[in-house]
Structure formats: structure tokens, C-alpha cells
Write a structure and sequence with these properties.
Length: about 400
């Protein structure tokens, strides 16, 4: 019988484990990606926690988390971004990923991170572990000629073009501005500068009075000049002026590219930006998921008027399993222990409330709790529906 152990690993040791497991489980092969480049990027990444599960002395499963900070309803919280969940084929269907994720959740909670987010390989697997779906961001496709009216307009600012690595410090400062007003948006606590410097992406910075007010990451690819595709993987603006500065920049490529693809948060309505902007929309191929790791740790976020008590069910994080009182005091959420519960809530139900992703009326059908119709009104009042947008891809 094989003996299993879970070990916390330093980055250099984890680089070898991840190369063996992740490049097989999560990337197309053969051939595998360049080992030296993969391990060099990983070792230089900071703020990470790594665990691997061993059968005897052979690593067969792994998981990682990176320290991040996330905006939830207007307040910033520490969050663990989970990635690198991979298992060797010989070790699958044995519950190893669940064991590792349970250990990782405990570690992140002990490190003061009350929240956790990830991109799932299978949503139902992670839902069983307490995670709930975020709305998917979407991609807008349009013929570049739809932007022709903007090509010659003067919007009162300018666009500076640099490679991402050369402008990353200013771009990251812009992202922090965007995060301040974007529910669900998270950034790495330690920026991955090395990855940015290796990136092959243009960075267009919209500037007004020498202040950066918008930014777009993009590349231009294709087979024939005049028929290229301009693909904007990030499109951020802080004002209407900065939005049209970036759209006008795209329009200036009308004799170079034929198609445009812009990745946008789920709550964007680009069809309203200007008349005759006929665009096709499709969801991103995967959306993130999030969960609460520490119920006590979510206190302080802005909430609407109301109070309720609930018995929380969270078998993977037993420190959450008790009756809690959730109450808005001076516009902020207070979380304290309570004696009596007005309802039962699974950790999925509580996570759906704070992220604003689901209707409490659906909880009973989903198996997430049993709030009465009257209590649902309090839940709506305290936690209005929102559209979280994660930003970071990891």
C-alpha cells in the first residue's frame, strides 16, 4: 500500500514538481514547453505558497496559491489566488486534489486571507469545495470600419505606445485605480514584473495633461497586411475621454487591420458606446470562481441596511461552522457569534451573497440554504446583486 504525505515546498523544489505535473495536465503536449523558461518564471514569482502530495517519495499532485488583494463591495481584502492544481494520471480519482486544496485553504486562512479565487478546470468540482461562479467576461468582435468616425477626432489627450515591460509600472498604477472602483477585481500583491517584461504585448496608455487615465494591452496578428486582427486583451478606462482615446487609437489602424477583438468585463455594454457599432459578443472560455475562507474575516465591507443570523455549513473549513450574526452598523458589515440561527447557509450561499452573484431565492434549490422569503428581503438589502470582475488571470 502506498503511503501518502503532503509537504509544503520552496519555489525551487516546486518548479520541478510543477513542470512534471502541470505541463502535462494543463497544457498541450508533446512537446512540453521549454523547461528552463518555465522554471525560471516560476522561481522568480513571489508571494506564493506551494503544496505537493507524495505517494511514497514520488510527487503525484500539487497546488499553489499567490497572495492577492481583492475589492469586495468597495473594501480591499487579502485573497489567495489558487492555481497549479494538477495530478498525475496514475493518481487521479483518489481525492488528492481535494486533500491538497483543503490544506491550502487552511494555510491561506492562517496567513490572513479570508477569500479565495481560482479558474476552474471543472466548475462542479470546485462548487462542491465551496466556490461559486462569477459572470464570464466577454469578447467583442467588430469590423474596424465601424470605428471610422473616430479616426480623425481630437479627444483632447494623447496615446503613448510602449511595450508592456517598459510601461508596466505605470500600467500597474492604473490597475490599482481601476480596482478601487471595481467589485471583485484583484491584483497580485507583488507584481509579476519579470513576466511582464517577457510579454510580447503592446501597451497603449491614454494620457490627459500627462496623467495616465486609460490603458490597453494588445497585439496585431494575421497572414496579410490590411487584414490583420487587432486583439485587445485588456481595455481599461477611468473616464469617457480615456475610453474614446483608446477607441480612436484602434481606429487609426483601419488600413492595417480588418478585425478587432476587445476583451471586456461582463457589465460592459459596448453596443451603447456609439451609433452603428454592430458588434458580435461571445463569453470568455472560462470564468473565475470565488469563496469565503474565513467568515469572521469578511467584516468591514460596505453593506446595505439589515441583519440576520445563519448557521454556516463549511466542512472543508471547520472554523466557519457555527452560528453567526451578520449586521450592518454605520454602513459596514459586522460579523459576530450568535446563539440562534434564522436560517442555514452553506459556504456557497454566503460566498454568493458577498460577491453578489446569485439570487437568495435560488439557494434552497441549489442546496445552499433555506432563507425564508421574508429573510431573502434582508439578504437583498444587505447584499445587492453585483457583477464581480477578477482581472488577473493565473
Amino acid at each position: 500500500m502506498k503511503r501518502t504525505t503532503i509537504r509544503a515546498l520552496p519555489s525551487k523544489e516546486m518548479a520541478e514538481v510543477l513542470y512534471k505535473l502541470e505541463t502535462y495536465a494543463l497544457q498541450p503536449s508533446p512537446p512540453r514547453r521549454d523547461k528552463e523558461e518555465f522554471q525560471d518564471l516560476l522561481i522568480k514569482r513571489q508571494g506564493c505558497t506551494y503544496f505537493a502530495l507524495y505517494e511514497n517519495e514520488e510527487p503525484v499532485a500539487c497546488v499553489a496559491s499567490t497572495a492577492m488583494t481583492q475589492n469586495v463591495r468597495g473594501s480591499l481584502f487579502a485573497m489567495g489566488g489558487v492555481w497549479g492544481v494538477a495530478t498525475a494520471p496514475s493518481a487521479r480519482r483518489k481525492g488528492y486534489s481535494r486533500q491538497l486544496l483543503t490544506q491550502l485553504m487552511k494555510s491561506d486562512k492562517e496567513n490572513g486571507r479570508p477569500l479565495s479565487c481560482l479558474y476552474p478546470f471543472r466548475e462542479i468540482f470546485y462548487e462542491r469545495l465551496g466556490y461559486v461562479n462569477f459572470p464570464r467576461s466577454h469578447k467583442m468582435h467588430l469590423n474596424i470600419r465601424a470605428l471610422l468616425p473616430l479616426a480623425k477626432k481630437d479627444f483632447g489627450g494623447e496615446v503613448e505606445l510602449v511595450m508592456l515591460g517598459n510601461g508596466y509600472e505605470r500600467y500597474f498604477a492604473l490597475l490599482k485605480q481601476i480596482r478601487e472602483r471595481t467589485h471583485g477585481m484583484a491584483l497580485f500583491d507583488i507584481p509579476d514584473i519579470d513576466r511582464a517584461q517577457r510579454s510580447q504585448l503592446w501597451l497603449a496608455l491614454a494620457k490627459v495633461a500627462d496623467q495616465v487615465v486609460g490603458g490597453m494591452l494588445y497585439h496585431i496578428k494575421g497572414e496579410r497586411p490590411t487584414e490583420y486582427r487587432l486583439r485587445a486583451l485588456r481595455f481599461y478606462y477611468t473616464t469617457s475621454q480615456s475610453k474614446f482615446l483608446l477607441l480612436g487609437w484602434i481606429a487609426r489602424h483601419i488600413d492595417q487591420a480588418a478585425e478587432v477583438e476587445i476583451h471586456l468585463p461582463a457589465d460592459e455594454l459596448p453596443e451603447t458606446w456609439m451609433a452603428d457599432l454592430v458588434a458580435g459578443m461571445e463569453p470568455a472560455w472560462r470564468g473565475p470562481m470565488g469563496r469565503v475562507l474565513d467568515v469572521a474575516g469578511i467584516a468591514g465591507m460596505p453593506t446595505g441596511t439589515g441583519r440576520f443570523s445563519a448557521r454556516i455549513n463549511d466542512p472543508l473549513c471547520p472554523w466557519n461552522e457555527k452560528t453567526w450574526l451578520f449586521e450592518t452598523v454605520n454602513g459596514k458589515l459586522q460579523v459576530t457569534s450568535a446563539r440562534d440561527a434564522e436560517c442555514e447557509l452553506s459556504i456557497q450561499g454566503l460566498s454568493a451573497l458577498i460577491y453578489g452573484t446569485h439570487n437568495p431565492a435560488d439557494f434552497e434549490i441549489l442546496g445552499w440554504g433555506n432563507p425564508s422569503p421574508e429573510l431573502q428581503h434582508s439578504l437583498h438589502s444587505m447584499f445587492p446583486r453585483r457583477m464581480p470582475y477578477l482581472h488577473e488571470d493565473f
